[in-house]
Amino acid sequence: MSEKAILFQEQLANIVGSENLITNREILERYSCDQSFVDPVMPLCVVRPETAEQVQAIIKICNSCKIPVTPYTTGCNNQGAAIPALGGIVVDVSGLDKVLRIDAISRNAHVEVGVTFEQLLNEARKVKTDLTPYGLRPSAPVELPACASVLVSLLEYNPTWTWSRYGGDDNDVLSLTRLVLPSGEIMKTGLATVPFVKKPYTDAAGVPASFINKIFHGAQGTFGIVLEGWVKLMSCQEVNKVLFWAFNKVEDAIKPIREIKWLRYGYEMFLINRMELALMLADKVPEEVDKIREVLPPWTIILILRGRADEVEYQEEDLKELSSRLGIKMLTEISGVDTANEKIMREVECPQGWKKTSKYKGARNVIPFITPQKRIPTFNKVISKLTQKYGYPTEDIGCLAIPAFPEPGVVHYQYSFARNPNNPEETEKVKEMVFEAYEQLVSLGAFFSRPYGRLAELVYARAGTYHSIIKKFKQLVDPNNIMNPGKLLL
Amino acid sequence: MPKEYIWPRMRTCLEDYYEMLLRCNKCSLCKHLWPANTYSWKFGYQCPSGEEFIFEQYYSTGRLEMAIAAIEERLDMKVDDFLHALFTCTACGSCEATAEMVCTLTPLRAIEELKIKAVEKGGLLPEHAKLMESCKVNHNIYNQPHELRFAWLPKNMNVSRKASVMYFVGDTICYRRPEIALATIKLLRRLGIEFGILGEREHSCGEVFFRTGNVEFGRKLLKENLEYLNSLNVKTVIFSDPHCYRVFSEVDKYNLNRSFECVFISELIEPLLQKLQFKRLEKRLTYHDPCQLGRALGIYEPPRNILKSIPGVELVEMPRSRRLSFCCGAGGGVIFAYPEFAARTARRRLEEVTDVADGAGAKTVVTHCPLCKDNLLRVASDFNVEVKDIMEVVLEALT
Amino acid sequence: MPEMLNYPNLVYERLRDILGSKYVSNTPCTLVAYAAQAHASLFFGKERLSETVVTPSTTAEIQNIITFAQRNKIPVAIYSSAVFAYWSISKHGGIIIDMKRMNKIMNVDEENCLATSQAGCPLQRLTAELLKKKLFLNQGGAPSSCLVGSRFTYGNVNKASGRIGWEYRNMVGWEMVLPDGTILRNGSRANAYETEQFWAHGPGPDLWLLPRYAMGQFGVVTEITIRCHTLDEEIKPLWVSFNDIEDAQNAYIEFVHAEICTGSSLYSTFKTAGYAADTTESAYRITRMFPEIHMVLTLQGTSRRVVWEEKRVREIAKKYNGRIITDKFPPFQVAFDSQLSMAASIYSEYTVKYFTTIGSGGPGTGLSIGALDDIEAAYKFVKRLNMEQEWQGNPNKGFYADTCAPGLIVYPSEGGHYALIECMGPGIDQPALRKANSSVVPAVFSFRVETGLQADMHGGQTVPGRRDYGLWPTYIELITKFHEILDPNNIMHPGTLFPPMFR
After folding, report:
1. Can you give the pLDDT at residue A218?
2. Cis peptide bond N-terminal to C203, omega within 30
3. Pairing verdict, β A398-403 and B165-168
4. How far is residue A23 from each of residues A13, A17, A114, A474, measured CA to CA in Å?
């Protein structure tokens, strides 16, 4: 290591303490990669600050030395966002993990960046008042495990299971009360910008030029490090009931989804194929998956009703009537799978996410995008052809669609592919298949709103003007380009 | 300039509207059709001059600003752009119908005061000056010989020149649309109503001058007609031109007196329908509410009731009907000063008559105003549409 | 506009080459007609008039205009519906772009419940087309004569906000011409090959709110895509009335937590009376006759849903001493009708009435953003403010001496995580208001600081001439610098969002 590097690390150690400066190669390797196809890169070191001031000091030094900084919380992204693409250091802020306040009346929580969904769920459930007799909970993420950072996941527009009810278009982050810019300055967004506001519960009202409150969303840490913010919670309910509709073809499910959504019932709603559902329902992955998959229908719509007993009752009646009108059968359980309902409930409230599902073969790669649901059959055909081309077993493809608005039509859709990471040949094959899938899906109109890794090139090749604007902003806030460089082509 | 509130009925000049003008907060509801009654994008507008010229001063919002600027002497009222913006207002009243209801503003009345002020300051538009000259020489606005006023009356039809019920025909019917008068006369006879006409003593009613800022001259003409009619001890005067009917109904506004009652022909006929025998008339038609009859005088249903009483008639309404009716484009002296603009407005109206998806989808439009009929007829052939006055339809249906 | 009426000069001629003479005007009348708006005299006076007004009809024309203006450093202001908005006035001369001709509807996508139109389409015309397909849009508390583009980029709330979010939340995408003349689209249409706008965010960092609260200083929105919502088989309005603000607040909080009903707002009687009454006096009479506060609700859905939700509402009403007074309530028929038709926000038309005759500009907290439990504090403050102050020659003084009833509107965000709280005293005339300002403004300022209620009008308090409550310095610095990057010559509506002290 050069003298400069040693000096640099000493400076870091002075800030965070030597116990929070990690140079152990084994540990560094864990920060250098994930299950995505983003090339692994070893960081110089990892620092674990415990306060916002430490984070500021670290960033300032890195800025003056022009050393890249990659923010890291829980590493649950699994799509390459936290891999230090150009080296430098990794700032692991998971130590800032306090739930600062929960406002039961407005149902909002003030959390630090290291707070996980599971942690917040446990805290929020304890908030039992007359208004919230069953407690509160955050909206749980799709694909990510409950040990993911609440703030980071929501900032990245990671879909949540309740998108169908609340919509994914104005995510659950209300304001950021502490964000460290690449210059080391503290920035606030939303109503937190106004010093005397005690309840900064919105990011798009009460302050001019609202864009700046949103531009940090979806930025993959390239504009700064988020440390604290307010997020929404929802009320837990007395009765929770899972309903199912089974289909042989995805085309048959499109109209029923529309009709069911027209009623605006339920909290969580999704369309899932048998592979993905089997992964969800299996207690032991991979042992139980294949067996469960065999008894499942090819496609299932799942809707979870929550509310008072009489509320759930009338909604169920309406849905039964609707099902009868559509000529489809509404089920309250999945035959052949015990306790399926409880398992689904658990997954949508405190998910195990990819940490469980990737055990099927050891690694998992997803292709998530936004699309009008009418395009799904076309995309499925494309994927099917690709799997044939690359010899990937079609039955192993997982598919999941989450309606993205309360109104019918647009969905978050994702494909998942399992692979054995210890099999280089298989990995290479899946990688090529996924990359080719990216290209074909992009050209057919799949919208990758979160362009991780290789996708950034494909997406921004078609969105030049948009990229030029965010690049201008990047140059403004981070002229030395130290924040997570290499992501988003920035 | 004091900004006191003056009760609407006490406002006698433009300056009295100042406080009201300042209260306009540009809500722009006057520009578009009343939202609850907008049924399509296509026919969602209501201001003829705004739709044509687009700029703000061609809507009442902009004209009110011009009025404020005029009162504050910030704007020269003699220049062409001012006159063009002001006198392209057809005085249809759709802006006032909205504004009065929503926020107690009366933009049309303010605009008319502005026209008076503009005429005071800069004189009449040349085209409007010609109308005045024509009246001075020939007692009509069409510059036609006075002696031809009743040339349309068949020689074998004797109509008295004096009766307790008189029929005031009007310039436009006499010189442009005499078929309306003929139909009216025949109908009155069929109903057994004894009536007379003024003959050569009938002069222009002067309505167009009231709408174009030349109130004094209009008043002079109206007075002439009133004096003559008063002298005849007439009980009732019948009108089939809403413009004439309006000015005679509003004599109080001009400090004039009349000793007779005014009645509009369809209001007269409606209660007498059972006396008439109709043959079946297979016609699908729509009714265009004239601005001066509908919005200005509140007569919407009698013409409709008459049409509906004719067997075989299918009356379909246009989306913009009754109080929301769209102007034909001729009023406010516009047909004289800006005939191409008037024709284009007529086109817009006929689009609504004929449009199948969003309009009435009719091939025949019936109206109750000679000026509306005249203006619509100018472009009717392009739409393959028949334009009739209601009297003609009734006459056609009589056995 | 006949060409001969205009005054030839270089700017006029160049713009005429772009648009055609019919759509360019620089006559004195034009400039006067575009120089004034509501509240202008309160805040800006009539400053320097613009020099030329243009009415383009396509994005390409707007591009050409802005490119020309940028090259010649000519200020450009955008004039949309200009309702209540004092920021459409050109304060530094230059060109005004009137959006009236940009009024086409591009597409109504029934399947995805999305509608795309040019930014100048009036809400009322778009609504008419949507109603044909049993859809409605989330129109805020403003007349239907407002234009879609400015309404949805600026817009806040309407009576259905509790379920379908604020207006801007319903904006899925836009197309903008930036100050340098390039066209920017967000979300799915950032992809140059994508023709459908179905997602608002990304790709990557989210520029979704670029036009919001920017007053046209970041560019001109030329097209916009908004979410539409489905009209149900059964719609029923319900009014729950309270005599006490504390009861009303608590009931409202519980109601919002229940996440029921489509229409869900809180109104005071005085506010609602203003929609129906023609004079201030008749508004006071109505206010004295009826309970003070109402939950104004619209139940919408299947018949089972409406029955159940009504039962739930009645439970909440009973718990907090509320009464469902009656279904038909003559003075409020206008607002009632609007609840029945979620689409034609009829009451919004009457927004104009109370604004004009009664005057919602009385001393109060104005439009504020707060939490639901801030309602009581705001209401009691405004009551105290108006009862304690002595307005010289104020005809309302008597009324306030014994029955002060502020005008209150509360609209929650979706799920009630925050709310817009508007609380104003009775309207008094402008001279009295100006006189009152010297004592009202400091009192309101102290109240805001004490309770933490931020004003929402005009995106906060950064309008020149108004008291600046201060924002986080880095925030101001970043938005100012970003503006400098996008518009180095500061031609887009200069002096509006960024007051002289900033730019």
Report:
1. 94
2. yes
3. unpaired
4. 11, 13, 21, 30
d(CA B346, CA C285): 47
- Tell me the per-residue pLDDT of A294-326, one tens digit each, with 9 for 90 and over: 999 999 999 999 999 999 999 999 999 999 999
**What are the pLDDT digits (tens) for B4-63?**
777 888 888 999 999 889 888 788 889 999 888 899 999 999 999 999 999 999 999 999
First and final C-alpha spacing in chain C: 36
Nearest to C33 among B31, B65, B74 (CB): B65
3-class DSSP assignment, residue A175: strand
* CA A347 – CA A227 distance, rounded (Å): 27
| C183-185/C171-177 β-pairing | antiparallel
pLDDT score recorded for residue C43? 45
**Residue A281: its H or E element:** helix A274-281
Mean pLDDT on B343-357: 97
Supply the angle between the helices C269-276 and C333-340 in degrees, to the nearest 10: 90
Alpha helix (H) residue ranges in chain B: 18-23, 48-53, 60-71, 80-87, 94-103, 107-122, 126-138, 171-175, 178-190, 207-211, 215-231, 242-249, 265-269, 301-308, 334-337, 339-354, 370-383, 390-397
- What ipTM was reported for this prediction? 0.94
Q: What is the DSSP string of B267-318?
A: HHHGGGGGG--B----EEEEEE--TTTTTTT---HHHHHHHHTSTTEEEE--
Q: How far apart are CA B56 and CA B24, in angstroms?
A: 14
This prediction's pTM: 0.92
Query: Cα–Cα distances in Å, from C199 out to A157, B128, B195?
Result: 12, 58, 73
Check residues B99 and B292 and name the one with the higher pLDDT.
Answer: B292
Q: How far is it between the farthest Cα atoms of chain B?
A: 65
Encode pLDDT of A319-344 as tens digits. 999 999 999 999 999 988 989 999 99
Chain B and chain C share a number of CB contacts under 8 A equal to 157
Kindly report the number of other CB atoms within 10 A of residue C246's CB atom. Answer: 15
CA distances B113 to A182, A362, B68, B122, Å, are 65, 85, 12, 14
Asked if A408 is an interface residue toward chain C (Cβ–Cβ < 8 A), one would say yes
Q: What is the pLDDT of residue C145?
A: 87
Contact between C12 and C6 (Cβ < 8 Å): yes
Look-up of token digits 């859809």: C135
Cβ-Cβ contacts under 8 Å, C2 against chain B: 84
C186-193: long-range contacts, CB 8 A cutoff, minimum separation 24: C186/A466, C186/C210, C187/A447, C187/A449, C188/A370, C188/A447, C188/A449, C189/C225, C190/A462, C190/A463, C190/A465, C190/A466, C191/A442, C191/A447, C191/A459, C191/A462, C191/A463, C192/A462, C192/A463, C192/A464, C192/A465, C193/A443, C193/A462
Min distance B340 CA to chain C CA atoms (Å) = 12
Helix (H) or strand (E) holding B16: none
User: CA nearest A237 in C: which residue?
Assistant: C258
Q: Is A466 on the interface with C (CB under 8 A)?
A: yes
Q: What is the residue whose two structure tokens read 């042992």?
A: A287
- Determine, for residues C227 and A372 on separate chains, whether the beta-carbon distance falls below 8 Å: no
Using alpha carbons, list the distances in angstroms from residue A133 to A123, A307, B300, C260, C320.
14, 12, 61, 17, 18
- Helix runs in C239-332, H state only: 245-258, 269-276, 280-289, 303-319
Enumerate the residues of chain B whose CB falls inside 8 A of the CB of residue C128: 38-41, 44
CA distance C19 to chain B (A): 14
Residue B242 CB partners (closer than 8 Å, separation 6+): B264, B290, B292, B293, B296, B297, B299, B368, B369
C448 contacts in A (CB within 8 Å)? Answer: 196
Mean pLDDT of chain C: 81
Radius of gyration, CA atoms only, chain C: 23
